[in-house]
Amino acid sequence: MAVIAIVLYVVFAALGFGWRSWVQYRRTGSSGFRGVSGRLGSLEWLAGAGFVIALIAGIAAPVLQLAGAVSPVSVLQLPWLQGVGTVLALVGIAATVYSQLDMGDSWRIGVDAGETTTLVRHGVFARVRNPIFAAMLAFAAGIALMAPNPLALSAFCVLLGTIELQVRVVEEPYLEGVHGDAYRRYLQTVGRFLPVIGRVG
Length: 201
Prior knowledge:
Layout (H helix, E strand, L loop, with lengths): L1 H27 L14 H25 L11 H25 L27 H16 L3 H30 L1 H9 L12
């Protein structure tokens, strides 16, 4: 199952980062990549750096398991759990790409505080404020179940923590500053990662 996890991770990276950046460049002249926000050591910087570390650890986990350098947690090494993980990973890939396309020209990796983009509230964004991150978490959880070693489980936990930081410390303050009352109304009606759950106000 580690081999399939590696293949799915490559597909995820190729579609979610490579292909989507290429589409963005073709449409706007920019790849959409904005990098890590904040000064070194700040919460904003930790969110961006932790995100990168989690992604690297996420692909390293099945590779190292396949090489015999790490061992799966025996209680999680169950065929049905690995099946669930495979479904989650596939759904996560599809949902990530779908949500990215729904975001249109406003799609970015990272935040440029001096840039103003359109507040996207249509499609899947009418139900969930951060569907791309939610989909990525589903994908990462699936990979962790497919190759359930300590590194994979740690990578998922780091990704969860850094996405929470990125959303709460970087993106929500930025969007509120740029879009004001329109964004505050959006916060009150749409959940953060799941429908309804995480509405503010």
